[in-house]
Amino acid sequence: MSAPLRAVAGPTDSLCDVAGVLVGHEYRRDPDATLGVDGALGSGGATGTTVVLVPSGATAGVDVRGGGPGTRETDLLDPSHSVQQVNAVLLSGGSAYGLAAADGVMRWLEEHGHGIPMGRPGQIVPIVPGAVIFDLPVGDWNVRPTADFGYRAAERAGSVVETGSVGAGTGARAGVLKGGVGTASAVIEGGPADGVTVAALMVANPVGSVWDPETGLPWGLTRADAERRGIRPPSARELTAANALAEKATVLNTTIGVVATDARLSKASCRRVAVAGHDGMARAIRPAHSPLDGDTIFALATGTHEVPPPAGVPAAFPNELPILDAVCTAAAQCVQRAIVDAVLAATTVAGVPSYRDVFPSAFGTSAGN
Prior knowledge:
The protein is built from seven helices and 14 strands. By secondary structure, the chain is an alpha+beta fold. The strands form three sheets. Strands 1, 2, 3, 4, 5, 8, 11, 12, 13 and 14 form a ten-stranded mixed β-sheet that branches. Helix 1 packs across helix 2 and helix 5 runs parallel beside helix 6.
């Protein structure tokens, strides 16, 4: 039985704590946007795109668990297939229409010389897998991310991660609550993976619930994060009102995201990291992976942190196995915390209330009973 993982949050507690990984958003968030209800169309813009950029390339894997995915270039991440590295991952609103944003990411990467060399100088093919969420009823159905969204998100990619109702999370919903973009990181302490960083960035837009109907607290909220954020169980009055509101929830679907590590891992191991990330999703969303969700997690390994080969590993197992075990454990924890971060960081868009709006007393801003 593995020893409990010891880890601390990275310097920024974000995906960019993994060296070589950058994040950029592009979004439209009109203040007068409205929600489409009962067949009526919404108005205004409320959608966006998030790009996870790895200009130097990263080994990648993916695991799709939802019954209604919207994805691009996931087949090439199969461990048996030839392409070994990706240059970016696209996360976008707009349902299947939003996959067009990847064209803009490819254009930016080509202009900057990032991709697989295919012949003469300048002849390259950037690799950009991606996934989308269904957010079309939030705002105007016809306002969707385009290739220009992807280009501008890549252009803006940096080491500071903005969270909440931004990027691909602009039009996200979590049941009756506002969803969004969240992130978290962990630096492993001790063991064969000592010093390895693992992080996640998630776009929370699930069919399932993100809060406990008995306490009002987010399902995946850890004690440490509750203390750090100053969150406590909300009032009984607010909880009763929220549970009544939840009965009127409109089904929107799909939680997508990226887990990254600076460990050196194979494509097969990256797939195992993506698989483990879904455990964190199931801790923070109940139920997860429904037939109406398109839940998808990508995993990236930059290999920027060198780890000495572990001693005592049986010859029948790869040398990276003990490292992989720790990375998988941390991946589940980071995904769990990133989804909670998305819910708590979200702000109201198109009349969809945020967690803070529904449960103000959880933050000590209401004395309701």
